Amino acid sequence: MARANNSIYSALAANLLIAVTKFIAGAFTNSSSMIAEGIHSTVDTSNQLLLLYGLKRSVKPPDKSRPFGYGKELYFWSFIVSIMIFGLGGVVSISQGIAHIRRPEVLGNPTWNYVVLGLSFIFEGTSLIIAIKEFNKTRKGLPWWKAIIKSKDPSGFLVLFEDGAAVLGLVIVFIFMVLSHNLNLPFLDGLASVLVGTLLIFVSFILARESRSLLMGEGLTSETQQKIKKMVENDPDVITVTSVLSQYQSPKEVLLVLILTFHAELNTTDLTNAIDRLRAKIKAELNVVKFVIIQPQSADVTENDFSTDIHLE
């Protein structure tokens, strides 16, 4: 979480400063693409604040109303961020761009726009580099896209995508601004705004997909489930593991439910000791597993008879 906070704070500082300068430059030069970029930076600033709020809420300790804690607050606010990128960033930018294509305005002196774009590229680029370094520490040698798919901490890849889209958006605006000014084609400025908005919508769909998956309840990977199954079945008191059910409550908290068949000759004390032993062993082996529920099953119940045999991927 601390690593994610570093990238979020750097992005927040960069976006807050850049948003103000973009709006001022856009107002002086009648540039719709610069205004679109200002909207983009404003949305990104709001997003960082929402992510920080989600992180703060997610570490609240469990209570009577939330016995498994508040970890999913982070997943909820990450999903809200993806919606804001779509609505306030993408749709507004496209709408404004279309309006300027239909009624293009002659650009004023673009010098201030170039200055703001240059400064923005420095700040956004610095923030992106920080986000890349922080995410790189968590991917453990996995390819970038696979690491994003497998990541259970949306605050890391959200900032990565936002900063990446911001830098690419700045490049788009710069190219079209140069063309618009040199070719005297003011409608190109509106086209740049449309392209920036389209980019934001594309990014929002990717982020919404990943955040929704986490919010709906992702579980441990198949490899980890097999590891747990093998570990438990090696216990002398266990006959077989019927089901391994799991769900991430937060990036560092997993709820694990095991349906086990124990040897019939175990008495109540033996069964209790076995359950305590297995629970301690699993938690010692997998730090991410915070809650372990073990349900014994009669030896004469087959796997096909157990109607709730569901494996969360």
UniProtKB/TrEMBL annotation:
GO terms for molecular function: monoatomic cation transmembrane transporter activity. One of its GO terms (cellular component) is membrane. It comes from the Bacteria. Keywords: Membrane, Transmembrane, Transmembrane helix, Transport. The chain crosses the membrane at residues 6-25, 74-94, 114-135, 156-179, 191-208. Residues 10-216 form the Cation efflux protein transmembrane domain. InterPro entries: Cation_efflux, Cation_efflux_CTD_sf, Cation_efflux_TM, Cation_efflux_TMD_sf, SLC30A9. GO terms for biological process: zinc ion transport. It is found in: Membrane. It is a multi-pass membrane protein. PANTHER family: HUEL-CATION TRANSPORTER, PROTON-COUPLED ZINC ANTIPORTER SLC30A9, MITOCHONDRIAL. This is Cation diffusion facilitator family transporter.
